[in-house]
Fold each of these.
Amino acid sequence: MKHRVIYPRPLKKGDQVCVIDPANAFTEEGIRNARAFLEGNGFQVVISEDMAFKRGTAEERADRLNGVLRNRDNRAVLCMWGGYGTIPLLDKIDYEALRTNRPVFSGFSDITAIHMAIQDKTGLVSFHGPALYSPKRPVTPDAQRQFIDMVTEPWKRKELSNLNGEPFRIVRSGTTQGRLAGGNMTIVSRLMGTPYEIDTKGRILFLEEVGEKPYRLHGMLYQLKLAGKFDDAAGVIIGGLTGCDDEGRPGSGEEAVRTILEDTDIPVICNVRAGHLSDPLTLPLGAEARLEGDRVIIIGA
């Protein structure tokens, strides 16, 4: 279902932000680093330590998540990192609280499931943002600054560029406009055939992945193709394909993408560095965006 675009209340210094972990389990090191990053940017930090995946049933975890969402003092609800465990929460989330309170909501990877449900149920712009702490891929200061810029001025027009200077690469050139939708390719695939299946009609579909071989990328993309998701879409952005090349064999993650998407009739851009990376771009899912050749522009309100 399409809803009008709703922007979250912009974050400002002094605001309370709540860190949750619906797809994994907190570590003390993670808590220390997340707190240091957020407090260093002037926010009051609350850690919802009982939100971790391994603590309680889906119903219990959803109840705790809803308590966080219903608390209007929480101007942002930020996921520590990805993991596994969000899909069982989708039919239990208080989406009306999200629509009413309009917090900044950010996360990536398995959190894609919640992003997709938020877009379907509310129209609230949410952020495919970096991990608050990652020992495997420490997030760079540039990526942290871009995240803060995005959530403090969520309605502002912005043109994106990779933080490491690499260019975006065109698979199919063109100009198009639509709301951003998507996230992790595996989660998008898992939700096909459910009430939370991705709606691509008139939208720019963003997909990223980590640790999947090219043949698995090919299979997931072909599933979307057979389902007509590229026929309906306004365009496609391919984000990071981290660890998706098949070492010792011909072919790469990007080649698998090109095999499926180079004969579509819509603009397609790859190497937009968002996803499982140390320098990920933050993308405002649900916001209007425009593709112009190799340019990605967030239009804003």
Amino acid sequence: MVSNSQLVTIKGTRDGLTLHLNDQCSFKSIVNELEQKLAMNGLDRDEPMIRVTIQLGKRYLSAQQQESLREIVRERQNLVVESIDSEVMTKDEALAWKEDTEITPVVRTIRSGQIVEIRGDMLLIGDVNPGGEVMATGNIFIMGSLRGVAHAGVHGDNKAVIAASYMMPNQLRIADQLSRAPDYESEGMYMGCGFIDAAEGDIRIGSLQEVTRRRPDLASFERRMLNG
């Protein structure tokens, strides 16, 4: 059995307070312990507002239970709950995460005037012709030529990348950044990849090898495209 002294741990940080709640006891026990500890805390009401983060661990709380915690903290005039974080996903959150990280294969040529948009990562086996456009909330990998428009990370993912076997795009977009067709010394770039340079804040185009050094999780795609 967990002793009462271990149910709620309060730690001060430079951003405020963090409340770590034990995830192996009843919610009622947590509430009782939290009320006692906050009542014992000698905070002066004239002190500035202090932000509180509540860490639930592997505990799921309903919206009503979360609101109960917020009310307990709000009773201290200078405390405000900024976030309640849990390591547990709801079914809807898990399904949304699955959709956002899923790889969708598309086998076709994207012709002028056509737009293909998917949720998650796109693996296009085919070409994007001038005037065609592909869009994805995640990364875009093209086993073919990119001569049209590609927009990765459309919901704001600035870590998304755009890779193509042959890259000579009309336009690249990643999150809210936009890059016009680059001035290649040759007709285009083989095995090229566009990404947002964290230092410069704009889109750069480099080799797949350069990008996978920055994003080692993409190595499996590099191998597929080099061997494809």
